[in-house]
What does this fold into?
Amino acid sequence: MDSKKTDIKSFEYEELVAFLKEMGQPAFRGKQVFSWLHEKCVDSFDQMTNLSKALREELKETCDLRPLKKREVLTSEIDGTKKYLFELCDGFLIESVMMPYKHGNSVCVSSQVGCNMGCSFCASTINGCERNLTASEILGQVYEIQKDIGERVSNIVIMGMGEPMINYDNVVRFVRIISDENALHISQRNITISTCGIIPAIISMSDERLKVTLALSLHAPNDEIRKKIMPVAKKYKIADVLSACDLYFEKTGRRVTFEYCLIDHVNDKPEHARELAQLLKGRNAHVNLIPVNPTPENNYGAAKEKDIETFQNILETAGITTTRRREMGRDISGACGQLVRRKL
Ligand code: SAH
It folds into this structure.
């Protein structure tokens, strides 16, 4: 990656118009280039055929498109899920997943190279975090996948490698660009940002005037258990994280989803379900239950079917809506960070 060159694909619409204006171009040129970059998703300036040759050359010299190299694609024989391994310009590897649902194609994107959060069940965090992704690199994952499958992507979850709230500015930029009416125009309501619960970032996010869904990786009914599996819990208490989520709901009107990864004998017993129900009582909450995906590095077992059912029943009886995350792509290292891990 040539860092001296401008990362033109990370500009929001108005910024791109201003950038081209500086180069002496009229405002409509900004619209044209934005459309090439984010609607037609081209890989080179040469494809921007309605620009003069001189302008294309100038853009080539000063700007960078930060292309992603598709290194590997695995397709699940069970459910059609596709897992992608991409190489960034500086050689780092990231992964993304495409899940074909009846309601449309959903893409799970990474927000960082690795992760620093240290959750004990997660494979993405084992080697720490190398760097944040630029907005253009997060966008590139969606664009490459859309080209690969030849179909529209309608849903995005920011649940791949990394903690999106640590890469806050680039993630917000990504959301604004991908939902722009001059770009892919993916509805913000169809975008979910998943976080382990960085309180100041959740508070800032509630003021961004975005309509995205916030998902909190809760994974425990109390601080004691949470601290054992998520180091971030040592910094932020559950009560305070939930207050930040309440604020997000008040300001955006978007119901927060609570992710709860069920680990055998750690957090999956009836008493944990009752404690969780108590914790979430009175909130417009939705709990997404996920049997933990065992990885070679953690010694966790997925919760047993019977325990999951009991857990879910206790929550439902307490008036809390739940879903069970469908486990997609089990046969292709579906869980967070597992594919990159295998490569390393
Ligand atoms: N850092 C963010 C987003 C990335 S992780 C977050 O913490 O939310 C996306 C989701 O996958 C999180 O809910 C995370 O806890 C979960 N996850 C990670 N490893 C997993 C595993 N082995 N099994 C099941 N879920 C896992």
